[in-house]
Amino acid sequence: MIYLDNAATSFPKPPEVIRAVKGVMEKIGGNPGRAGHAGALAGGRILEACREAAAAYAGVSAPERVIFCLNCTDALNMAIRGTLHAGDEVLVSHAEHNAVMRPLMGYHDAGKINVRILPPDERGLLSPATVRAAVTPQTALMVLCHASNVTGIIQPAREITRTCHEFGIPLLLDAAQTAGTEDLAAVGADMIAMPGHKGLMGPMGTGLLCLGEGMLPRPLREGGTGSASDSLRQPSLLPDRLESGTHNLPGIAGLLQGLKFTGWHRAAMTEYEQALTLRLLRGLRRIPGVDDYSGPSDLPRTAVVSFNVRGLDSGETADELNRRGIAVRGGLHCAPSIHAWLGTSGAVRASLGPYNTEQDVDALLNAVEDISKSRRT
User: Fold this and answer.
1) Element (H, E) at 93
2) What are the φ/ψ torsions at residue 45 (nearest 5 degrees)?
3) Taking Cα atoms as reference points, which of 202, 180, 207, 209 lies closest to residue 256?
4) H helix or E strand, kind and range, residue 16
5) Mean of pLDDT over the chain
6) ω before 14 within 30° of 0 (cis)?
7) How many whole angstroms from its chain centre is CA 140?
């Protein structure tokens, strides 16, 4: 199987990630913060090392401001639900994932908040000037999808963050598609939500919410934290305020190694994936009967390319590619807003990772050309 679905989850994982997960399961018996024996203390050291690595990557001031989550969706819900109040207004881009839009629209439909979706320019970029013009006295939060999981286009997040800060508005960055490949510290976002299992190369079931200074969301869950156990009330200090219950220690151990792996190889990985992406884009644009939705080639982008074979539903094309041993994703990708802007009812998405090769790209191009040719004839 040629795996080209890295935007859903990266595969394969680096060997050190797999060893770390296995090592915890085999060698560390203990629940961090719930005992003082050697196993529990060893687990606690893994948690702290992962916080420190994530804090350095995200540019937050202290490791305790890194919150372990179930996934990126959990992190986004924690930030959104823990920050907003009745009467608030939220600005979002046109490319938001349902992990952002569903919690926001739930509040919006209940009459608790107002949500405004901001239009991009013709290239798919959200302008800081558009954000500036949209701000009202009720604007309390900006949520920005750093890079679309459909087009791959990276938004000018640093400039948009600066614009929000001119008005004292915090920015929540959805880094689902950029964590591991982009310099997130340079963005200066107030909150960053990221998955552990995509570009950071960690296991599924891991995610991070990184909190800038002054950000203290209300907890979604309350319960045992291993601290202040004499109190019947949730601790107020981070990270315990937001981390009730037992941690996913095997997953976090793997995530730590993923953070190290991407930290060592980030520049080379990004350059390599960009070269593969350009090869794929150029190839698709030479095939008659194929439409791609990646925008101008000179835009900053992730290693995500979406396309359709004319006359075929995206699911049909994805199924045909699967029969040929190529794993891609068809459909709406949980991002109906960007498809509405593109005017599509779905697309085939090929997403590249550091373990893909030029041969993988060429195999996909040959298969798509054959499928398109068969459709035309």
Assistant:
1) none
2) -65, -35
3) 202
4) helix 15-27
5) 96
6) no
7) 22
How is the chain split into domains, by residue range? 2-9+266-376, 15-261
- Residues 97, 220: Cα–Cα separation, whole Å: 20
Nearest to 126 by CA among 109, 108, 111, 147: 147
Place of tokens 């919150």: 67
Name the pairing type of β-strands 171-174 and 191-195: parallel
Find the angle CA(271)-CA(276)-CA(279) to the nearest 5 degrees. Answer: 125
CA distances from 194 to 129, 132, 154 (A): 26, 26, 15
Rounded CA separation 276/284 (Å): 12
pLDDT higher than 80, residue 30 = yes
Task: Please name which of 272, 240, 261, 297 lies closest in space to residue 355, comparing C-alpha atoms.
Answer: 272
Tokens of 371: 């499928």
Q: Is 115 helix (H, G, I), strand (E, B) or coil?
A: strand
Strand, coil or helix: 141: strand
Per-residue burial over 287-321, b if 16 or more Cβ lie within 10 Å, else e, is bebbebbbbeeeeebbbbbbbbbeebebebbbebb
The listed CATH number (3.40.640.10, 3.90.1150.10, 3.40.50.2000, 3.10.180.10) that belongs to domain 2-9+266-376: 3.90.1150.10
CATH 3.40.640.10 fits 15-261, yes or no: yes
Confidence of residue 221 (pLDDT cuts 50, 70, 90): very high
| Residue in this structure with the two tokens 């539903």, named with its chain if needed | 313
Q: Which helix (H) or strand (E) holds 313?
A: none
Question: pTM of the entire structure?
Answer: 0.97
Alpha helices by DSSP H, listed for the chain, are: 15-27, 38-58, 72-83, 98-109, 128-134, 157-166, 249-284, 314-323, 336-342, 358-376
* Contact between residue 353 and residue 273 where contact means Cβ atoms under 8 Å apart: yes
What are 247-275's pLDDT values in tens digits?
999 999 999 999 999 999 999 999 999 99
- Compute the distance between CA of residue 321 and CA of residue 364 in angstroms, rounded to an integer: 8
DSSP symbol at 241:
G
> Which token pair is 292?
């791609």
Mean pLDDT of 42-57: 96
Chain-centre distance for alpha carbon 245: 24
Instruction: For residue 341, give the DSSP letter.
Output: H
Q: Which two tokens stand for residue 78?
A: 């924690």
